[in-house]
Amino acid sequence: MxxxxxLKTILxxxxxxxxxxxxxxxxxxxxxxxxxxxxxIELNNRLITTFNYNTIxxxxxxxxxxxxxxxxxxxxxxxxxxxxxxAYFTRLQISLFRLIGQLIILATxxxxxxxxxxxxxxxxxxxxxxxxDGSHNNLFYTLAIGLFFIYLGKLFNKSKSLQEENELTV
Amino acid sequence: MAILxxxxxxxxxxxxKSSELxxxxxxxxxxxxxxxxxxxxxxxxxxLEAICEALKCQPGDLLEYSSEL
Lengths: 170, 69
Hints:
Chain A: Keywords: Membrane, Transmembrane, Transmembrane helix. By secondary structure, chain A is mainly alpha-helical. Chain A is 71% helix and 4% strand.
C-alpha cells in the first residue's frame, strides 16, 4: 500500500501554521510593551477593545481550544506517520484514533460553550442558535467527525483481532 | 481454547520430527510450532488433510475437545 505522502504534507503545513498561531500571546505582550494604544482583537466575529476580567478569561479559553487543535493535528501527523512503517491496525493507531475523536468532541463542545459565554460577556445577553450552513465549521458536523474517529478506532480494534486470527491460522 | 491439538503425541507415535512433517506438508516450522503449542486460532482443511495424510491418521487423532480448559 502506498504511503499517504500528500496527506502528510498537508498536515505538516497545517501543523506549522498552527504552531505560529500559538505565539499570538507573545505578539500581544510585545505590542503592549511597545505601544500604549490598544490592539484590536477579534473573537467570534466581535471586536474586543477593552480588557477586563471576563475578556481575559475568554481569551484564555480561546487559547486553550487552539492548543487542543494543535495537539489534534500533532496526533494526526503521528497517526499518518505510523502508516509509513507499513504496519496497520497497531495499538498505537487504535489509541490515536480514539484520542483524536475525543479531543475533537472536547474542542467542539468547548467552542460551543465559549460562544455562549462570549455572547453573554460581550453582547450582555444569553442566546445561541443551532444552524447548519454549507461550511465545515458547524457544531454538528465537527461532532460527527469526532464520533467518526472514535468509530474508526473501534473498527481498527476489530480489524486487529481479525488480522491476529488470520496470522494464527495454519 | 477448549480444543487440544495432539500433534506431539502423533509425531511421537509415528517416530517423526516436526521439521520432517513441516517438509512433508509444505508449511513452515514456525507455523507448525504455532499449531503444536496450541496458539493457533484456526486450521485450514487443506492443512489438516495434509497432516492426516503424512501421519496416516484421522482428524480426531489430532484434535480433542476438553470442557475443562
